[in-house]
Design brief:
Length: 198
């Protein structure tokens, strides 16, 4: 019996010194009433590892294409990267993204300025004349459509306009009307239409 207790004490002492030699992993030793000691080892919390990524395409419940996100390293490594849905953000990539955003902004500004110039041209022309076959009084046969407006603009200004951007009231009789051309989300041109019967 004495040999077994001395063996337990030796094992306890040697295991204690073994753990202490590996960077204080053992936090403390507790003595029990029957002279055995128990080692208490506290687990360290795992560090959360995230990766800063940019999405190459829309990913459901994560984000849209071109969006910068922080995701768990394992999610990127095991899903996003193998599927080609994302890539790690690097300083070079951030610089390229900034240049692309500036290029897109410059293009948007240019398109808006062109629309404003075109709107100015349309509004300074005066009234576009629309001929229709006359009926009783001020009535005309048929009505003036968006396609009619597009054709008149093409004939008088040599400008191509999509009929989808033309918004005009219902025209069934002679008179002066205002039509609107939605040239840009922020630019609308107002043109006058002078409808007369021949």
């Amino acid at each position: 019996m004495a040999a077994s207790s001395s063996t337990a004490a030796t094992l306890s002492w040697s295991s204690s010194s073994f753990f202490q030699s590996f960077g204080n992993t053992v936090n403390e030793s507790v003595k029990l009433p029957d002279k055995r000691s128990v080692l208490l080892v506290l687990a360290q919390r795992k560090a959360k590892k995230t990766r800063k990524i940019i999405l190459k395409e829309d990913v459901a419940e994560l984000g849209k294409k071109g969006q910068l996100l922080d995701v768990k390293a394992g999610f990127y490594r095991n899903y996003l990267h193998p599927m080609g849905k994302a890539q790690i953000v690097t300083p070079l990539l951030l610089k390229e993204m900034k240049m692309e955003e500036e290029r897109i902004e410059a293009e948007k500004k240019r398109v808006k300025e062109e629309a404003q110039q075109l709107a100015l041209i349309f509004e300074t022309v005066g009234a576009f004349k629309v001929k229709r076959k006359g009926g009783k009084g001020k009535q005309i046969f048929g009505s003036v459509t968006a396609q009619d407006v597009v054709d008149i603009i093409k004939a008088q200004l040599q400008r191509d306009v999509d009929k989808k951007i033309v918004d005009l009231p219902e025209i069934r009789e002679t008179g002066e009307y205002i039509a609107q051309l939605k040239l840009h989300p922020e630019v609308t041109a107002r043109i006058r239409l002078n409808v007369f019967a021949n």
